[in-house]
Each structure stands twice: as C-alpha cells, then as structure tokens.
Amino acid sequence: MTGTTTGTDAPTPAQPTAAARAERGTWSLSWHGLRTVTRLELRQRVRSTRWKLALVLWVLVVALITGLTTWAFAVEARDSSYSGPGDPFGGMIYSIVVLFVLFLGLLVAPTLSSGAINGDRNAGTLATLQVTMLSPAEIVLGKLAASWLAALAFLVASVPFVVWALFAGGVTVLALVGTLLMLAVVLGVVCAVGLGFSALVTKPSAAAVLTYLTIGTITVVLPILFGLLAPLTTTSDPVRVWTQTSFDQDTGFAEECEWRTQVREVWHHERTWWMLAPNPFVLVADAQPLVADPDEMNDTNLLAMMQYGVRYAMTDEGAERNECWTRLGPDPDAPVEETVVTDRMAWPWGLGFDLLLGGAGAAVAVRRLRIPAGVLPKGTRVA
Amino acid sequence: MVAASLSTMSPGSGVAAHGVRRSFGSVQAVADVDLVAAPGRVTALIGPNGSGKTTLLLMLAGLLAPDGGTVSVAGFDPVTQSYQARSRTGWMPDVFGTWDSLTAREVLTTVAGAYRIAPADGGRRAAELLDLVHLTELADQPAHVLSRGQKQRLGLARALVHDPEVLLLDEPASGLDPRSRVDLRVLLRRLAAEGKAVLVSSHVLAELDEMADDAVFLSRGRTVAAETIESAGETRRWRITALDPEALVAHLARAGVAYDVDPDGGSVLVPLSADTEAAALLGDAVRAGIDVVSLAPAGGVLEQKYLALEEERR
C-alpha cells in the first residue's frame, strides 16, 4: 500500500483563504469575523417570533407606566399651588420612566445572552463555528454584540417615552443623553455577564439565574451590606458642636449659642460609599449633571435624589455641627463650616467596576471556547 | 501496513495519528489508535457503536485535545497549530445541528464568511455546493423544513465550503436515500481523485465497501486492524447456490475444496483467494453437471473482515 495514488503528493486545491493564513490565536480579532458572527446571531434573533412578542410587550408596559405616571402627577399638579414654569412634576415623571426602563432592562438583558453559548452547544451548532477560522474571541464578542444590540432595541423602543417625559420639563437634554448612554452601557455589561455564565454552565436557564444573582448582588445586596456595615464604620469622634446654651421656654428656640466639643458617634460612610457605586440605578442617577443646590430642587426628581444621596455618602461629614435651632431652622449666622456635598463623581468608579465584571464574563467565555478542549465541564459535549 | 504507509506518505499531507488516547473522566473513549488516511484515498473508519470513532474524529478536527499520542492533519498539529490545521480540514459531525431559521444558502454563506471568504466568492461557492448536493431547489427554504437526509447533504456541503485538503466525515450516509448514497459515493471518489484525504466513519459496512480504498478497524478505542481493501491474495468467502445443494456438496467434497454449509440452508460457503479461483471453481462445477444458480462473494470485504475480527476477539 502506498500513500499516494494520484501522483500529486502535495495537493494544492484552490485556496480561497490563502491570504488569511497567518496564524491566529484565541484572542485574535477581525472586523470580518465579528461581523460574520453578529450577523448570524441577529438573523436568528430577528426571525424568532418570541423576540418580537417580547418587544411588543415591552412597549406596551413602558407606555402604560409612562401614561399612568403622567396622569397621576397631572392630577397632583392640578391640586397643588405650583406657579413655576412647566409641569411641577416633570422631573419626577422623567425619573420614574427612566428607572422603570432600567428595571425592565435588567430583567430582560440576562435572557438575551444567557443561552447564547450553552444553547448553541446543546443544539450542536457551536462546534461548527469553532472549527472554522473564527477565533474564540470573535465568536464571543460577535455574540455579545448581537445580544447587546437586541437589548438596545428594547432601549430604543422606550426612547419615545423617555423623551415624552423630558417634555414634561425639569430635565435637561444633556441629562437625557447621559442617562441613555449609561443605560446602554449597563445593559451591555449585563449581556456580557450572561454570556460568561452561558459558557460556564450547561443550561441556559441556570445561566440566566446566575446572571440575575450577580445583578441582584450589585443592585440589592451591596447597598444592604453598606447599611449593615454602619456599626463597623461608626467611630467615636470629637466633634465641635455650635449648640444652644439657653433657649426660650415657650418656643424651644435658641437664644444664645456657643462652641462645645463633644464626643459623638460618627458614621464614616465615606469609607464604604463605593459599595453603592456599581449599582446600575446609582450609575444612571449619578451620571447626570449635578443639581447645583439640592435645597433649590424645585421639583422632586428620584434620579437627582439618588445622586444627592450617593454624593452625600461620599462626603466626610466634617468635625463641626450646627445645632443651634432658631426660628429660621439651624442658625444661619452660625460660624459653622457647613458640610458641602462633594462634587466628586461616583459613577466612574461604579462604571469601572461594572465594566471589569462584564469584561470578566467575556474573558471567561473566550477561555471556555478555546479548542482543542482539554477537560470538559461536567455534562457538556463537544458537538 | 500502517507502518509502510507512514513511511511512504509524504509529510504534510493527509491524516496521521499515532498512539492517540483520550478519556472522559473514568471512561477511556480512545485508548490507543494508529491511523493513516492518505491524500487521494478514501479511508473507512470502522467500528461498533462506542468504539471511539466520533471521539477520534473530534480530535482530528481539532475540537478535542488528545491525552497522549501525536496527530497530524494536513501536516499540522491540531493542538499546537490549531488554526492552520482547521483551515485545511472539513468536518461533518454525526449529530447535525443547524441554524434552523437560516436558509440553506445562508448557512453556506455564513460558513464561508467564517472561513474568511469574501462575500461575493462565498455566494458563488454556496451556489456551487448547493448544486453539488442537489439542494438548489430548496436553497432559499429555512433549514428546519429540510428532511434528515437533506440536512445531511447540507452538512456535507458545509464541510466543503473552504475546499479543505482533509475531509473528516462522521456517519455521512446515515439518513440518506439510495440515490443520495450513490451521489455521496461518487462525490467522495471525485474528491479523493482531486487529491484530498477523505476519512469516513460508519458502521454500515456495505456502503463503505464500495467507496473506500483503505479501512481502519476500531474496537474499544483501539486500532485492531488497518487494511487495504483490494488487497491481492486475501482469502474471502464466496457463496455458491445450486438447484440441488446435496449434489453441490458432494462435488465439492470430491474436488477436495474446503467448504462450509451455510447454516441458513441452501447454499455453501467456500474460501477463495482470487477471482481466477472463483472462475475455475464455477467452470469445474458446471462441467461436473451441477446446476449452479449463483456464485458471489458472501457479504462485503469489510463485513467479512469485521466479522472475522469480532470472532478473534471472542
């Protein structure tokens, strides 16, 4: 038996791919490869009726919430004695719609990516992509781009309602742009986390649950932990207090005040504020222009309130207190250095953390798609 | 024979595996496989269910890392030179998953894109391949309306998109109708004639008989034999049927020919090592006045070989 019977011992079939033969590794990326994977994924998504149904439902729910909020505050405004420009509750309507869109987005985004890898593996279509000249990074990032674009479609579908709320007044266009950008980034991060879990576990539903847990951790668990850690971050500090030495017996208002140094329990929340930063709601709230003076917020805006809260948490309360209560509230003439809420921003830190989280998800997925596969995770098959 | 072909095969072509092992947990799927699939030839990979055929093909396709041994595909190591090896390998899996909502044409153009073929060339290549596997009429139907056999043909087309040097086909004929089986055989012969190394796994031996040049037998994850199918001087069994079986048996006994009466009744099995012997046997029998109805090889070469191996193992 001889190996070659055709006479050409080095077959040279036409190679349409000869130009691209340079060795490519796990992390190689090309526009061509990304586009191929993204188009494949989007084609499949667009053709599924489930997705269209979800989009229609989404629009209905967001419309309902926007409508109800507008109506409720319109009734409220009629009864109030507000005389300024625009709707007194414009900012409130806007912030409720934005927060609700974010909430729905956090519910929908994990389902968009949590089946992207293990679902394909179960359907036997993942290996057929892996054996091609696509790199693992191209497959993962292509899938990420597709699920992110799908999530953005939901966001785009809610833009009319957010803009509608904007017209109610009280919010600047700059705030709107910042908010939408941050919403888009947050959805992308959730998709990336979902993709990572999709590569780690066999079942799409399990990946979705793990993604919800992760998002739940940064959204709910960390803020709770921030509160629970208060005893640990509270210390007994000497505080200079501008306090009343005598007061009116009838009204209780101060007549005379002076400096006293007292030992007070001070909660140093400026040491643990970072636990609030990765929270998607905080991110979106903090990434708008700071309202100059919270006391002058002439309408209530949930986003602005959250932003103020976070900035306050970042601020060291200082070593002086004004406890001289007069008819006008705290003594306006007190020589007390007032605590000024910081204008340092929380969102870059939160964004950085969340991007790292999303990046870790994508990196895990890429590592899991490397071939040839060594040890296979339990319950997975190659093809 | 494996050793001979290893030494004569030019390096950097076809498929060569040496001492390949792979286990999943405690299950040793592939224990020790030596295999050569030379360019220009169709090599059959034969073994019962669970003998490690699919695992072996996954390793050759570069999807699974072997625990030990060496593999070379088109001159590249699928482990260390994955990209180079992949770009020259066409793999058709046994369980055929497809992107259900895509049309047959889109499946092929997508795969062409994944092999970095320019869109225009990819479209042309897709049309060519659809024609080759007779799916042109269904080209723009979603893949989920295709029958199992049609999907199988689409899978074959998919493996050919980038004109690979090495073709790894896992049970390509399962689900195919007789016409498609013939087409598959003709196609694989043609691809081999173009100089490609074609490795086909199956446990349906009759279909391999007609298309394969070489055969590698696997059992319990080991290579138990590697054969060239048309090997000269190989003894195989022929089946003779006569109107009067007793007269035939008497004739064979008189002529001193070794024979077995087929337990199925009616016919007699005779080991012969060449076609000329068969002709001589037939001539003698007819001259002796036996009414011979038929004389033909009993089962395919592969089937006989396979059954012989099974018997040896018992």
Unreliable stretches of chain B, pLDDT < 50, 5 or more residues?
Answer: 1-11
Number of domains of chain B: 2
Distance between the termini of chain B: 24 Å
Gross morphology of chain B is globular
Instruction: Quickly count the domains of chain A.
Output: 2
The CATH topology of the largest domain in chain B corresponds to: Rossmann fold
Description:
The complex is a heterodimer of chains A (383) and B (314). With 383 residues, chain A is mainly alpha-helical. Chain A is built from twelve helices and five strands. Chain A has helices at residues 31-46, 49-79, 90-113, 118-123, 126-130, 136-167, 173-200, 204-228, 230-233, 280-286, 302-314, 347-368, and strands spanning 234-247, 254-267, 320-323, 325-326, 329-330. The radius of gyration of chain A is 28 Å and the shape is elongated. With 314 residues, chain B is α/β, with parallel strands linked by helices. Chain B has two domains: 2-228, Rossmann fold (3-Layer(aba) Sandwich), CATH 3.40.50; 236-313, Alpha-Beta Plaits. In chain B, 38% of the residues lie in helices and 26% in strands. Mean pLDDT of chain B is 86; it is low at 1-11. Classes of the chains: A mainly alpha (383), B alpha/beta (314).
